[in-house]
Amino acid sequence: MYAMDHNFYEKETETKAEFQSITDEIKNKSLEDKHALRIHMEYVVEGLWNQFTIALKNYQEATEERKKAYEDLKARDEKSAEEIDMQMRKLQRITDNIGALRYKLSLNSREGEDQNTRLKQDRDVIAAHFQSLKAQLSKLRGSEKDRLRRLAMITDAAEKELNAKCSKSERILKFAEMCRGLETEEEKVLPFYASTLTKEEQEDVDVAVAEPPREPLAQVMYDYTALENFWKRYNKVLLDKTALSKEKSVLSDQNQQLRLLLKQYLDGISVNDEILTQANPLFIVNHNTSVKMNVPLMERRVARKFSPPCPAVVEAAHHVSKSRRA
């Protein structure tokens, strides 16, 4: 332990010394780069200053040329003023022409009034036709609104039904995942039971399936042929459920009979006035007893007590998983 600490301390010292040397080297390099950058920036600033001096000189020379250009533009402005005066005289002549045209317009306005009167009459006719079309459109809109309301109700009902089916499907998938963990190795390898039909019967079924359906029920069955494997598993589970229900009813009857026997036994070992006035079920005379032995001993689960015990069988996968958890 001490040797390990000593080695660790030496490595830590060497690492710190190496880190310090690398840090000093980086700092020195940074200072050198900073100094070189400063020299470069001074050189750039000096160049920019020279450019600025040259630009200022050029600007002064260009300003002198623009001053001369201003004088030229001023002369052009005076010439343009003369042209504007000439254009004003031309505009006056145009104004006179506008007056003559207005007189003609007044004459044409009278003819336009007559034409407007005819157009108003046509407008009234079109407005009446528009009102009738509007009434028809309102009636059609009301009927379409009723249809839309019915469609919305049908859609809402369909949506609710689809949501219910989705919820049911989700529950089915959850139950399928839960049942998947409870399946035996044989069910996982062979999830669908083998067909019990003979070769001739299977050929007849294939021929019947290949024929196009003619009746509505046959069409529906033909549309759901993809769910054949699902129905196989469903029928298998339904048969298992029916068998378990029957076995449960048998076990319930046996339980009631065993409870009756247990009650008779408890009454036989009890001591009170009510029991003493009745026949004691534990009292045996000439190898006969008053206990009502109504339990069917030939039933599989009851007769098991009177048959040689069967060896217990444990699946290998279950044994391996249990041993791994242990």
Task: Write up what this structure looks like.
The protein is an all-alpha fold. The chain is 82% helix and 0% strand. The protein contains eight helices and no strands. The protein has helices at 2-182, 185-189, 199-210, 216-223, 228-269, 273-276, 300-303, 316-325. The longest helix has 181 residues, at 2-182. It is flat and about 150 Å long.
List the helices and strands and how they pair.
Layout: H1 2-182, H2 185-189, H3 199-210, H4 216-223, H5 228-269, H6 273-276, H7 300-303, H8 316-325
In N-to-C order, the SSE pattern is: HHHHHHHH
Distance between the termini: 36 Å
Query: What is the count of β-strands?
Result: 0
Q: Please compute the radius of gyration using only Cα atoms.
A: 55 Å
**Number of helix segments?**
8
Helix proportion:
over 70%
Largest sheet: none
- Structural class call reads mainly alpha
Which range does the strand content fall in? under 5%
What's the pLDDT, averaged over the residues? 78
**Based on CA inertia axes, which overall geometry fits?**
flat
Spans where pLDDT lies below 50 across 5 or more residues: 295-326
Short descriptors:
single chain, 326 residues, flat, disordered C terminus
Concise overview:
This protein is mainly alpha-helical. It is built from eight helices and no strands.
